């Protein structure tokens, strides 16, 4: 079970990843990767796919199929209600009405917000969140000794912030006597989110004993110390997490945040540079990746983020995360050439990292280097990584659709230009006069 730090002020480790350059498929493979989606406004201009930008004082109502390469980020969605109830019809007869988000999902036939899952054939389907959680719970009840079923349920409960139920499930896993360190860590994080600090501290210490090489129990213990105003213990746990894994970006970010809160930004930077100056960190980009994350989210400080991201690449030009954040920052500024120049020497890494592949693909496509796009997608299609292979297949379909549309537009324009003009106006010179 993947659990990361959760101190509110600590930025995501790669907040510009994957979505730094908006994908043809409507945002690219941002879901499921550390950091989630980046701020809108990548190379596409306003965060919309393929640079499509909607503006003006009028509106267009069109089906989703009209946007085969992804719906623009500032579009409004019109959803047909196929079987409205009599009550709804009566209310609509009185005029437009406002519904809550929960009511909207109910009208669309979902029990709770719609979430995407995969069926037994691996195909994506939409299901109501409450139906998903109920189904997972029933699936576990069929085999209560199957801890993997319980872990899947707990993971989804944590994902959708149902922490009370998650604590119950994780508590049963830990009490089973067959729990692993990740189970203890997940329970400790859940108790931390529920503000049960005494329980969380004990559980996280148990996780630390089971996983002495994992930096995250210490980081979450630092969060517990922060919430209980034990500043000395907070710093001690931060430094312990760094010593466990010096390439843990979250640990360096926490150190920066802690020092800035206790003094100021200059001293926070000095603390990072001093700690990162040891010979053991000669090829470690993590400290600088962490710092850039504090400046990447705002346009006013994005140039400062680029400076720190460049330092990360200078430390280790083979670090995929360093390349990822710098390329995404360039993409947010619309500097396609810089993205291409940075990533073109690292195509081999893209065979294993779909986030790098996405950023490079988007820069090439938006720069209309179609030959290189085709070559890249052909290479990625042979990747042993399932996500990279699927990315190549989906993007190939999107590119083909775009090119087909452009070809149809050219044919239509050519036919219009070749059509003979219809004579208009008065009688041609030399004609018979009535």
Description:
This protein is an all-alpha fold and 434 residues long. The protein is 54% helix and 2% strand. The protein is built from 19 helices and 2 strands. The protein has helices spanning 86-93, 101-107, 129-142, 147-159, 163-175, 181-193, 197-210, 216-227, 231-244, 249-262, 265-275, 286-292, 302-315, 320-332, 336-343, 347-350, 354-366, 370-380, 386-418, and strands spanning 114-118, 124-128. It has a two-stranded antiparallel sheet with strand order 1-2. The longest helix has 33 residues, at 386-418. The chain is globular and about 85 Å long. Mean pLDDT is 83; it is low at 8-53.
Features:
434 residues, mainly alpha, 54% helix, two-stranded antiparallel sheet
In short:
With 434 residues, the chain is mostly helical. It has 19 helices and two strands. Helix 18 runs antiparallel to helix 19 (386-418).
The average pLDDT score comes to 83
- Gap between N and C termini, in Å? 93 Å
Helix content: 40-55%
**Largest sheet entry:** 2 strands, antiparallel
Rg, nearest Å: 27 Å
Structural class computed from helices and strand pairing: mainly alpha
Following the backbone from N to C, one meets helices and strands in this order, namely HHEEHHHHHHHHHHHHHHHHH
Shape: globular
Portion of residues in beta strands equals: under 5%
Would you identify the regions where 5 or more consecutive residues have pLDDT less than 50? Answer: 8-53
Strand order of the largest sheet: 1-2
How many beta-strand elements? Answer: 2
Number of helices: 19
